[in-house]
Amino acid sequence: MIKLTQIFMLGLTLLFSVAVNAEVKLEDDSEVLGKWNLYAEAIALHKEKVELFATWEFKKKGVLHTVSNDRYGRTKNLVIDLKYAVEDGVIKKQKTPGRSKMESCKVVKLEGGEMTLKCTFVYLFFKR
Fold first, then answer.
1. pLDDT tens for residues 30-52?
2. pTM of the full structure
3. Would you tell me which CATH number, out of the four given (1.25.40.10, 3.40.50.150, 2.40.128.280, 3.40.50.1100), belongs to the domain 23-127?
């Protein structure tokens, strides 16, 4: 009886981990085009979120227009245009303006005006 319970629990754990790690594969950028409010980031999906104040606008022709509000810095808003593309179902965005290195961001959630991206070292949480 104990082994049956252990097998059942292992099966549930495996099923839960697959459901949590599900990704949304993008066909193109049509589902993300437009303005998104970046309101939080976290080092893991279910860890504490750090509040952010930024907007990302995915424009046609591969331009990601970002505006970040720095409450504690000398500049009120930091405005940067980055290059982006949707390749192999993920968003590939320029890491730094003027550099060619790209970062892959997988779409973990995209529903009801909410989007969650898993980038290299951080999860980003957006609302329309």
1. 999 999 999 999 999 999 999 99
2. 0.80
3. 2.40.128.280
